[in-house]
Design a protein that fits this description.
about 300 residues, alpha+beta, Jelly Rolls, Arc Repressor Mutant, subunit A, five-stranded antiparallel beta sheet, three-stranded mixed beta sheet, elongated
Length: about 300
Amino acid sequence: MPKSSTSKVSRKKNKEGILDLKTVNECNKCLGAETLHPQASVINLDGADLRQAGVKFEFYAVLLIDECADGCCCCGRRYYDFATATMVFLTPGEVFRLDAAGALPPKGLLLAYHPDLLFRTALNRHINDYTFFFYRKEEALHLSQRERRTVVKYFDDINEELHHPIDAHSRTLVSRLIELLLDYCTRYYERQLITRENKNRDLMGKLGRLVDHGIEAGLLSDGHGLTVDYCADRLGLSPAYFKDLLKFETGKSFAEYLLHKRLAAAKRMLLTPSASPAVVARRLGFASTQQFSFIFKKLTGVAPADYRFSSN
C-alpha cells in the first residue's frame, strides 16, 4: 500500500474548518496516495496530519484505526472491548472527527469508494443492510489481533485488485472484496455484542423501565411518544445501533417489542374498574377500540371485555 504524506494541494474548507473531499481522487491527493482507480482507493494513513476540525467524505469511507492512546474512549472503547484496532464506517457526506488533536488517526488504513463503483453490483442492492454505516463514531468496532489480521488481508486484497489495469471485471471484483470485508465486520460486530453482554443487559433493563414509564405517563396516547428515536436518544445510542442491539438481545424489532409492552400494560389496565377497552385502547395509542380488541384477542386468545370479566 502506498505510504501517505500530507499533500500541499489546495484544501477546500468550509467556514467550520471542515475539509470537504468530494472525490476519491481529491482524497488521494490530500493524503499523498496514488490514484489507481477513480472510484476506489486504499490509503495508508501513517504520517497523515490533518489539523482541520474534521473531514467530510463525499463517498463511503471505512477507517481502520491502529493507534489510540491507552484509555482512549473517543470511539467508544471500554475495558470490556478489544484494544488492537478500531473500525469506523462512514456514509457519503458524513463528517468525521477523531479527536481534538486531528481529523484522522496517525496510524491506520482508509478504504474510500464512491457509490458509483457499486452500480449494477450485488453490493449495491443491499449496501444499506450493513447498518453499522449508520452508527455513531462512539459505537465503533473494536478488533482482536486475529480479527485485525483478517481485516487487513481484505484491505490488501482490495488494494491488489486496484493495481490491476481496469477492465470489465474490475467493478465486480472490487465490490465483491468490499462485500466480503463488510461481511466479516458484521460477524465481528455480533461478537462485540456478545463480549458486551453485561453492558447490554443493563441497557435492556433501562429500556424496559423507560418504556414502562412512558406508557404510564401516557406517551402513547398521541401515537408519537415512544419511538425508536426517542428511546435511542435516552439510552445514548444511535437509532441504528439501538435497533440492532434490541434485535440481538430480544429477537424482536422495536415494533414487536413495543407491542409486547403495550399488551402487558393492557392486561394490567383492564383489571382496573375504570379502564374500559375504549379507555385502554386510547391510552395505549391504538387507532380504535376495534383494532385494540382484534390484536388483544389474537395474541391472548380472549377479547378485552372477556379478559376483564374472567379476572374479576
